[in-house]
Amino acid sequence: MRTTWVSSIAPGLALFILSGAATVAQTSESRPGLMYVGTLDKKILVIDEDKEEVVGEIPMVGVPRVTQLSADKKQLYVINTRMGLEAVDLDTRKTTTLLNLSDGRSRPDVFGFTPDLVTPGIYDFDGFSGLAVDPTGRYLYSSMRVTIKDLDEYRIEPTKFVAIDLQKKAIAKTFPFPKELQEGFGPFASFKVSPDGKLLYVFGNDILIFDLATFTKVGTIPLSKPMYPGASPLRLTVTDDPYDDATKVTSVFTSVDPIVHKGTLGLATLNLKTREVNYTPIGAALPMMGFMVSPDRKLGYSVMFNYSGGSRRTEWWIWDLQTHQVIKTAPFESRPTFKFGISSDGKKLYLYGSGSTLEIFDAATLKSEKLLYLNRDITTNLVTLARN
């Protein structure tokens, strides 16, 4: 792997992270600005970005917990709390039950929690990165460990890699993990399937490359090895970025200087074809919750915080990615827990995940414009479809 430094940066990358808590997806068809979010009353809510109101409800069999867009962005795959797999057609808003992964006697655990590496040491158990969609639309890939209830004990089977056939609505293939990965990829690994659907890229301490036909390892990108003596290991975490093509992975990273231990925040891009990684520093890695980039890649948004508990202070920060400067800040009322997302046109910021409300902020002024009462608790990430 050849690593290219776009500009000077403190040596020694520590961690790579996702560029935001919400997922934004592109589609080839013209659509209005729509957002989707799961709720505790077994619904997927459809929210119109322009009207700023709920315009539809899609009933589900179970409480939605994990969502993943199909490769063509026309369906939303949902895993509910009962480990059932459902598919939502985003055009007709109809739901199809694909597979019940639990049969009463056995219950699988699907791995893939999203680490919040902007705030090192914190993991976002509401985010999910353990599913990979086949670009051809045939398969859904994941790691799975099954717990079986026998007459007098619970038995945990070894972790397996599974391919779910979305057409036949069944688990088509299961593969045991090699000896060096007996526990699987781990709960915080994320996946990316190559554009031709033949290779799986697994992002953990290193990037492992597997042949999906045989589940044999065919390559490694050793990101975990520090570039300088004394530097922290590297790491890259990935989900689909709507503004990359299928051959790229873009992520935020933080680096730590091994001499004075000063943190730096930046963007990293991995080319899946050439395996080249480019790093672009943005600024100091200060205490923050999340980092999202605007669709035009000119601005970044983060939530900065100080103190804890009832005294915690939270602020919006806008970063100019061209000049690497903070160009605007604004405080807002803190919450015990929350996520934030960005609209498909980059003009609005959404604060959600604490209770049953969705607060809408103007991305330019950072002022709260509306508090949308959903009247039910949110159980998934916010999924926003981009419009042409």
Question: Any idea how many domains?
Answer: 1
Largest sheet: 6 strands, antiparallel
Strand content: over 45%
CATH superfamily, by name, is: YVTN repeat-like/Quinoprotein amine dehydrogenase
User: What is the CATH architecture term?
Assistant: 7 Propeller
| Uncertain ranges | 1-21, 120-127
SS-based structural class? Answer: mainly beta
How are the SSEs placed, and which strands pair?
Layout: E1 3-5, E2 13-17, E3 23-25, E4 34-39, E5 43-48, E6 53-59, E7 64-69, E8 75-80, E9 84-89, E10 94-100, E11 106-110, E12 113-116, E13 122-128, E14 131-133, E15 139-149, E16 154-156, E17 160-165, E18 170-176, E19 190-193, E20 199-203, E21 207-211, E22 216-221, E23 248-256, E24 263-271, E25 277-284, E26 288-293, E27 299-306, E28 313-320, E29 325-332, E30 339-342, E31 348-352, E32 357-362, E33 368-373, E34 383-385
Parallel strand pairs: 1-25, 3-34
Antiparallel strand pairs: 2-23, 4-5, 4-34, 5-6, 7-8, 8-9, 9-10, 11-15, 12-13, 14-15, 15-16, 15-17, 17-18, 19-20, 20-21, 21-22, 23-24, 24-25, 26-27, 27-28, 28-29, 30-31, 31-32, 32-33
Describe this entry's structure for a reader.
The chain is an all-beta fold. The protein has one domain (3-382): YVTN repeat-like/Quinoprotein amine dehydrogenase (Methylamine Dehydrogenase, Chain H, 7 Propeller). It is 0% helix and 52% strand. The protein is built from no helices and 34 strands. A hairpin with a 5-residue loop joins strand 26 (288-293) and strand 27 (299-306). It starts with a strand and ends with a strand.
